């Protein structure tokens, strides 16, 4: 009898526990306790209030350094090198004598012409005196005068040929490695060395065509080289008058001072250009969703998510400019965008 009483008490305790702890309580928000089964709770999402910001539009692009002037040093005439002065990698001034070609034959011809010129000048002087007393005809005097002028022209021509035997630096710059040796026979086809002017140095880069009205000659740009934290500045010197039809880009050239020759032609550079400062609507980049026909954002209106088409402009690392679609005061949703749908309830944090 006692075991039956204990078993009955255990069964009673299990029944009471089921009703007390495992039975769902009715939803107070819906009559009869069964009206809340289809209602979706409002998730807590991050939002920001849209407002104007002072922003500076910046173009970030890549470019290359180019020499301000670069030339291959060649001889105008053929001949044997009798003097060679190429301090490799050294800065030389304009007019510096780089090489000298054998000029013995030209000097001999020049000496001969000078002697003939002196004799012709004496003859012309005597004929002038004879003409004054009508001892000779004017034609004879003009022949002797023409002889002097002809010899002077021949002399000038030889001086030009003599100057061509001296190969000088056409501008100040650094000499490259020499390609010939003393005593070599050179022709105009031979490159003796090269001369490069590093200061100033050119910076060539491209910019999207939509910024064609924002970049001007005289504008300041900033650039950095790979492996260096130093920021250099340059000024826009020229803009290509044509647009690259395949890339839709504009080619721009700037000049930077390079007194220490720290920048070398051919270097890769990262260029930034401040094109304009404006007061515009800037929103977090993660809030803008790319779609097939443009860009969209979610805004909270009347407690629900609403899709808004927007037109974007300048973009940087963290924010994007919204040109159309949003107004100041709109509540922009910035989180949970993957699963969010239009009409979903939103409870912002």
Report on this model:
This protein is of the alpha+beta class and 349 residues long. The protein folds into four domains: 45-54 and 279-348, conserved putative lor/sdh protein from methanococcus maripaludis s2 fold; 60-68 and 197-276, Efflux pump adaptor protein, beta barrel domain (Elongation Factor Tu (Ef-tu), domain 3); 75-101 and 165-191, RNA polymerase II/Efflux pump adaptor protein, barrel-sandwich hybrid domain (OB fold (Dihydrolipoamide Acetyltransferase, E2P)); 103-164, Helix Hairpins (Orthogonal Bundle), CATH 1.10.287.470. Helices cover 22% and strands 41% of the residues. The chain is built from three helices and 20 strands. Strands 3-10-13-12-11-14 form a six-stranded antiparallel barrel. The longest helix has 29 residues, at 104-132. Mean pLDDT is 86; it is low at 21-38.
Short overview:
The chain is of the alpha+beta class. The protein folds into 4 domains: 45-54 and 279-348, conserved putative lor/sdh protein from methanococcus maripaludis s2 fold (Beta Barrel), CATH 2.40.420; 60-68 and 197-276, Efflux pump adaptor protein, beta barrel domain (Elongation Factor Tu (Ef-tu), domain 3, Beta Barrel), CATH 2.40.30; 75-101 and 165-191, RNA polymerase II/Efflux pump adaptor protein, barrel-sandwich hybrid domain (OB fold (Dihydrolipoamide Acetyltransferase, E2P)); 103-164, Helix hairpin bin (Helix Hairpins, Orthogonal Bundle). The protein is built from 3 helices and 20 strands.
Kindly report the CATH topology of the largest domain. Elongation Factor Tu (Ef-tu), domain 3
Compressed to H and E, one letter per element, the order equals HEEEEEEHHEEEEEEEEEEEEEE
Kindly report the spatial arrangement of strands forming the biggest sheet: 3-10-13-12-11-14
Q: What is the rounded Rg?
A: 44 Å
Count of strand segments: 20
Quick one: biggest sheet?
Answer: 6 strands, antiparallel, barrel
Mean of all residue-level pLDDT scores = 86
Number of helices: 3
Based on secondary structure, the structural category is alpha+beta
Instruction: Estimate the global geometry from the Cα principal axes.
Output: elongated
Uncertain regions spanning at least 5 consecutive residues: 21-38
Tally the structural domains. Answer: 4
CATH class of the largest domain: Mainly Beta
The CATH architecture of the largest domain can be named as: Beta Barrel
């Amino acid at each position: 009898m006692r075991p039956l009483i204990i078993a009955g008490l255990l069964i009673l305790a299990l029944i009471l526990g089921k009703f007390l702890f495992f039975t769902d309580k009715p939803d107070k928000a819906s009559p009869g306790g069964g009206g809340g089964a289809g209602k979706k709770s409002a998730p807590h999402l991050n939002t920001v209030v849209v407002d104007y910001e002072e922003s500076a539009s910046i173009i970030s692009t890549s470019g290359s350094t180019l020499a301000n002037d670069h030339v291959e040093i060649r001889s105008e005439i053929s001949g044997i090198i009798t003097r060679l002065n190429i301090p490799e990698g050294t800065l030389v001034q304009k007019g510096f004598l780089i090489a000298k070609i054998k000029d013995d034959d030209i000097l001999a011809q020049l000496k001969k012409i000078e002697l003939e010129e002196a004799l012709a000048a004496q003859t012309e002087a005597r004929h002038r005196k004879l003409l004054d007393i009508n001892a000779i005809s004017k034609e004879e005097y003009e022949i002797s005068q023409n002889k002097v002028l002809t010899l002077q022209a021949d002399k000038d021509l030889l001086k030009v040929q003599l100057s061509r035997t001296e190969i000088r630096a056409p501008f100040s710059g650094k000499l490259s490695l020499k390609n010939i040796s003393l005593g070599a026979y050179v022709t105009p086809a031979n490159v003796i060395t090269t001369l490069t002017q590093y200061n100033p140095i050119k910076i060539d880069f491209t910019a999207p065509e939509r910024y064609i009205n924002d970049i001007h000659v005289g504008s300041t740009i900033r650039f950095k080289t790979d492996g260096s934290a130093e920021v250099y500045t340059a000024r826009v010197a020229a803009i290509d008058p044509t647009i690259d039809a395949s890339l839709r880009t504009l080619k721009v050239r700037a000049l930077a001072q390079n007194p220490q020759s720290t920048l070398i032609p051919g270097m890769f550079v990262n260029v930034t250009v401040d094109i304009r400062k404006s007061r515009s609507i800037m929103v977090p980049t993660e809030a803008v969703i790319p779609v097939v026909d443009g860009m969209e954002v979610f805004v909270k209106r009347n407690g629900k998510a609403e899709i808004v088409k927007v037109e974007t402009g300048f973009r940087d690392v963290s924010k994007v400019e919204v040109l159309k679609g949003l107004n100041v005061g709109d509540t922009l949703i910035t989180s949970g965008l993957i699963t969010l749908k239009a009409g979903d309830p939103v409870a912002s944090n």
